[in-house]
Amino acid sequence: MALIDVVKCEVNDKELVYKFPSEDLRIGTQLIVYTGQTAFFVKGGKVMDQFESGTYTIKTENIPILNKLINIPFGGNTPFKAEVWFINRLAILDSKWGTPTPIQLKDPEYGVIVPVRAFGQYGLKVANPKLFLETLVGNTTSFTTEKVGDYFKGKMVSKLTNLLSTKIADYKISVLNINSHLTEMSEMLQKEIGKDFANYGLQLESFNVMSVNVPQDDPSFKKLKEAIDKAAQLRIVGRDIYQMDRSFDVLDKVAANEGASSSLMNMGMGLGVGMNMGNHMGAMAAQNLNTHIAPPPIPQQSTYYLAINGQQSGPFDVATITSYVNGGQVTKDTLAWKQGMPTWSALGSIPEFSCLFAPCPPPIPPTL
After folding, report:
1. Is 311 helix (H, G, I), strand (E, B) or coil?
2. If both were cysteines, with which of 90, 126, 230, 366 could 36 make a disulfide (CB 3.0 to 4.6 Å apart)?
3. CATH number at residue 310
4. pTM (2 decimals)?
């Protein structure tokens, strides 16, 4: 058994804890504690004497608690056994954190649920070495900042998720605009997560949320972008112009349907949509050109539904029905109905069409 003459710790800056590899010490062993370190004598799992930075020659006088436990004889180079632990108290500021899986958040402005990822950086140091050694380290001979991150990752992500959800819901912030609030969020998270670190003798020096993002290839992200683009169109061109543009799309689809089918139903729909589009465009043109003097609107023609081959068709305007009568597609007995009529009636009994089936008397001449 070789007795140790010098006990010291020289490890990388990611190590928070280092246990000296030998317990074979003696009175007269030199203990070197570098700046930013604290050393402890440990016996039977219990923390004994504590040493701050400096160089010490071990004597019974400077290890009173340990000496009392094992009753080292005074004087000489008496050997004894004890663990020596070193705690690194320097601040380590470049530890990374991130969400292992996306956080599902609902965008309050557009109602779309999107997967959100976040990552950043934090700094920490050991503020209470004895509490840290007793509560978190245990008998682990090496304890790195990565292990600290593993222990606290769940708490970080939990508090981040809660803060993001609250921030988005309370302030009606879109997920895509959350990055403008990173500084405020970082300060709040440092305060909240710092409480958990303090319970284990650690001090959270900094906590930064560097980015909150949504995978651009995710379907929900594309859906959210489409909603934002439509909202932007409305703001730029106005609701009326946007509706007119949408109406053109509908008209194109109707025209395509007319090309694929020759039924009277499609003919009537196409004609009706076309007339409504013309009226709508005329009104919008007058409004957008700021016309001060304009003729009154064209009176709306009555439209009728027809019972053709036992099926309801239409609606058709008077001109269209007249062309059907002239073409022999409908007769005076064909049933017709329009809004306001109590029941279906034969075309020949409706004043607007009676002249199509029998000569009409001339109008009453004007009074001279």
Report:
1. strand
2. 90
3. 3.30.1490.40
4. 0.56
